[in-house]
Design a protein that fits this description.
30% helix, alpha/beta, 13% strand, two-stranded parallel sheet, 8 strands
């Protein structure tokens, strides 16, 4: 059995039914996946497995979602999955690569890359991003990566090789894989232990954050790095 599917099998056995904004409910025919805010609705439109990519592409207002782990997954849909292979396919379409990262983490093989290391290896138009100051990083990461409106991933990477956290503006829960990062507007609550949730893990800064770092430097009028 594929390792990621074995992981899903164990999660289902432990009755862990949520990942990000996804709800996974067992049924007689297999599984039903929907937005977790919609779990009690009976008016959801049925979609096929292959529609998951399109579901993840736009939010409720039909705005494009460049960051798939942003807390703005569209509502109003449900997908039936016959088995864990199809469940995995839906999850991977909505949250690309996250099951593989989770498997690497649980098996002790996941490596992380500090933000400074990620920025220092940039080239071309993004090379200037390495000039961002610690003060700018603190504010930028604190806003860009926040769970309420930013990103639902749990941050595992550090700011630099000293092991400092990326931003003091983020709560400790943002770095804790046992905490459910989704704060539903339907049922406002503080972040709590993820007894029924699978974390969306972040092992290194994404391309969108790197681009935001570049923009922050450019806005401050930083000169390009010397050749």
């Amino acid at each position: 059995m594929k390792e990621s599917r074995r992981l899903l099998d164990s999660l289902v056995a432990e009755k862990i039914s949520r990942i990000g904004q996804l709800e996974i409910v067992s049924s007689e025919e297999g599984f039903v996946l929907c937005h977790r805010d919609d779990a009690d609705r009976d008016d959801l439109k049925r979609y096929e497995i292959d529609d998951a990519l399109e579901i993840a592409k736009f939010d409720d207002a039909r705005n494009y979602r460049p960051l798939k782990t942003a807390p703005n997954l569209r509502h109003g849909w449900k997908i039936f999955a016959c088995d864990l292979l199809q469940v995995e396919k839906v999850i991977d379409a909505i949250y690309p690569g996250r099951i593989a990262v989770l498997h690497a983490f649980t098996s002790g093989r996941l490596t992380t890359t500090s933000l400074r290391e990620t920025l220092n290896r940039q080239s071309g138009m993004y090379r200037v991003s390495a000039k961002i100051s610690d003060e700018q990083i603190d504010g930028l990461v604190g806003n860009f990566c926040r769970s309420d409106g930013g990103c639902l991933r749990t941050i595992l990477w550090k700011r630099d090789t000293t092991g400092r956290i990326p931003s003091l503006k983020l709560p400790p829960e943002k770095f804790d894989p046992t905490v459910d990062q989704y704060l539903s507007p339907k049922e406002p609550r503080p972040a709590t232990a993820a007894t029924e949730s699978v974390p969306l893990l972040c092992q290194e800064a994404c391309n969108l954050l790197v681009a935001a770092c570049r923009d922050a430097v450019k806005m401050e009028g930083a000169a390009p790095l010397a050749s």
